[in-house]
Amino acid sequence: MDVACVREKAREVRKDILRMIAQAGSGHPGGSLSAADILATLYFGGVLRVDPLAPKAKDRDYFILAKGHAAPALYAVLAHAGFFPPEELGTLRQMGSRLQGHPDSKLLDCVEVSTGSLGQGLSIACGLACGLRLDGLPNRVFTLLGDGECQEGQVWEAAGFAAQQRLGSLIAIIDLNGLQIDGPCPEICEASSLAERFGAFGWDVHTVDGHDVAALHACLSTVREAGGEKPHLVAATTVKGKGVSFMEGQASWHGKAPDAQQLAKALEELDEKEAHHA
Amino acid sequence: MPSQETFPLDACALLASPGSDTKKRATREAYGNTLVELAQAGMPVVAVDADLSGSTTTAKLAALGTGQESRLFNCGIAEQNMIGVAAGLALAGHIAFTGSFAVFGTGRAYDQIRNTLAYSRLNVKVAPTHAGVSVGPDGGSHQMLEDISLMRGIPDMRVLVPADYPATAAAIRLAANTPGPVYIRMGRAQVPQIYAEGAPFEMGRAAVLREGSDVTLVACGVEVAEALSAASLLAEEGICAEVIDAFCVKPLDEAALLASVRKTGCAVVAEEHSIFGGLGSAVAECLARHCPAPVEFIGVKDTFGKSGSSEELMAYFSLDAPSIVEAVKKSIARKGIW
Lengths: 278, 338
What we know:
The structure holds 2 protein chains of 2 kinds. Chain A is α/β, with parallel strands linked by helices. Chain A has 9 helices and 7 strands, in the order ααβααβαβββααβαβα.
């Protein structure tokens, strides 16, 4: 994998996320920016076996965005990966757009299932893994959850089920950005470690820096090939709003669009990062 | 909509003949048996249950394979996960049927059914058992009376409420052969056999089980047998009731309903469900638009169920044939003066 290339893609994705949300006048920049490196590694780092020319290919890996409010990040990645024209990104959240506020699988064949109501993606991923195994197929099933999302009880229903069913083809990634709409996750509800809890449920648990593309690639590739009898959890530590100084670590940017001035400053910062890395 | 040429379904071909060997069976008994039959016929059916596979009868699928070959997935007492797992199985190309009791299999997992199954238009059949007060001794916490209302309101969700064992077997087959989400409501109580084995059913089609001229009796589920009994009682008093089995509550067979009410001039709707939002509401919505007429509602009237035997509860909540007879008289009396 070309680390520099994936990082560059992630930077482009971040810029698109901000442009899309600014144009729409609403959306979720914080959790989209925190997930950008994870999604870029999956789609541009060769981890996820998907083909934009055959989005429903029998042998594809499946990806489910459990934290559906990070739709702008997913749309930007899918567009850059060639699943639909990047020009369409500007239609986010508008009347008649295929890019609904949260992913709608009826409108985009590169989206496996509609999400947006939190806590449901992991169960769907479990069912997919069961169904593929029943047919003797080796496809992998990836899903990306938020840490706040793990407050939903259904996540733990699924966590127990996945372990009991020995779903080694299932890879769940948690975007551990530590913040939810009303504030820091530990202050709202969660206090104990999600990684430890999944471990206690019988999962194969890995922790990784969710903004270190090389580390993400190494970890995700390893668990993709691992299979086995335990479902895999990748706890990816991230920063909400990553890449934009005034959004980083701010719960207030969970679901708010930047204005024109804020957008210009954010894009400028991301361009400076390019110059820095160059 | 069905064409007038093919409607109504021929009652003689549908009904079990009086002298034949019919017996009381619960509608749920047809569930597992029919899933096994479909799987053996090569259909990719799977069942996902929530620790009630013995009660719902989905456990019968276990006979076809165990371990990684099993077509039965038990989620434990976790109905929300049950719906999500069924969604994933459908995405992988299987025809997924869910289980549990109607109260948990719809109410506990409503958001999962709405936002995952229906919004993505997945090939999952929500098919819980133990609906209505006929569940009996378990009491109000276990007697689901709002499920038709909940499911009918979801876009793209079809709603089937079969009346007996053959109708339930047909509903399971029909659902398996109809892409997209379908709700099938089954019960615990043993009910009389009305239909002949293998009687034909179609999505969006009702069955006229008895022709009449004075009142249209529309029923679903266990109330079909009560409506037929009521029609016999009414006949003794010289009142000729037409009985329609609204097996498919959504899409409702509006053509059959309107043809009947235009003839009879009034209706009674009978369902083992709240009078709010179920078959009664569906019938009233249709008649209000196309053929205003007096309608009386047999159903549970804004209250919860309670413990008792099935028969006691059917009488207590005025769901039995004598209650239907009274409602028919009220509806007829309102013709022209309502």
